[in-house]
Amino acid sequence: MLKSFSNKVVVALLKLLSILPYKLLVAIGYGLGFIAARIPSERNRVVKINLRLCFPELNEEAIDQLSKKHWRLLGRSLVEKSIIWRGSETQLSNMIEVHSEVNLSDRKPRILVNMHFIGIEGSIILSALASKNHWPRTSGFFQRMKSPFFNQKIIEWRNRFGGNSIDRQGNSIALIREIRNGSFIIIAPDIDLGLKDSIFAPFFGIQTNTITAVSRLASITGAEVCMMITALKSDESAYLCSIGKPLSNFPSGNPEADTVYLNQIFEKEIRLRPAEYYWVHKRFKNRPNDEASPY
After folding, report:
1. Separation CA 137–CA 128 (nearest Å)
2. Which of 72, 99, 174, 283 is least buried, going by the fewest C-beta atoms within 10 A?
3. Predicted TM-score of the model (pTM)
4. Do residues 225 and 179 make contact, with C-beta atoms less than 8 angstroms apart?
């Protein structure tokens, strides 16, 4: 009974946040991030471990400053999920601008590699604008949540414009079908998703567990692979969802080499905007050769 009531409260709160003026919502997010950065927590510890590993040239003061910038932006992204999950097409269009170097209406088999920047869920803009722009529907894997209630709710919210969330547990056939039908397929491979179908590839000079799914799916389906980055504009007024040209010679026929190449792209993009990356993830939790976890 109590859990049911608390679930309804969270749903109502998300709706309330989604109708606030956008500048006020952003200010609330920045405030939450400011507080979170200064409260000792497990995730705060993880952020600083990741930053030390990836930027060994920075001293502790610089690590602390970068961590605080990250939490500020992470707080913003958390309250913006109210618009991502419950907002209107107009709200999303005002918050996220799309720029593509490929024709999104041509229905070519195409995989969009979406990185874990704070704007990652801004990819929903492709679904929101699909009908107006005659784009195909958007499909992608989702990770199950611990709460069955919110697992179902978030699927409903993400699919409200006609998108298709596919459970990543054993549903590769469904994803292959969507790729061949010309749907937008979004995959975010830059977190540790377990040792199955993965290799250890360099990432910031660290052997890092990385799935090979992008290369393998592209080989099976003949799909183009394009990077998709949703990042803040320089004045932080909104987001820009940028879809690049197809990666050349990808897939190469060598999933290991392709995965190494993707990690190189990820690292380059992160270095351009380090505070926007999701450092709260335990990116290095699985280690090769029985190495101890840094966490």
Report:
1. 10
2. 99
3. 0.93
4. no
Preceding amide of 251 cis, omega within 30: yes
Q: Encoding tokens for residue 80?
A: 């913006």
Q: Name 198's bridge partners.
A: 211
How far is residue 292's CA from residue 279's CA, in Å, rounded to a whole number? 19
Specify the 3-state DSSP secondary structure of 141.
strand
Q: Which two tokens stand for residue 59?
A: 């001293």
Are the beta carbons of 186 and 223 closer than 8 angstroms?
no
DSSP states of 221-277 as a string?
HT-EEEEEEEEE-TTSSSEEEEEEEEPTT-S-S-HHHHHHHHHHHHHHHHHHSGGGB
Q: Could you tell me the two tokens for 69?
A: 């910038």
Q: Do 16 and 86 touch, CB atoms closer than 8 A?
A: no
How many CA atoms are closer than 13 Å to the CA of 243, on its beta-carbon side?
23
Q: What is the largest CA-CA distance in the chain?
A: 56
pLDDT in tens, the chain (295 residues): 667 778 888 889 999 999 999 999 999 999 999 999 999 999 999 999 999 999 999 999 999 999 999 999 999 999 999 999 999 999 999 999 999 999 999 999 999 999 999 999 999 999 999 999 999 999 887 777 778 888 888 889 999 999 888 876 667 788 899 999 998 899 999 999 888 899 999 999 999 999 999 999 999 999 999 999 999 999 999 999 999 999 999 999 999 999 999 999 999 999 999 999 999 999 999 999 989 999 9
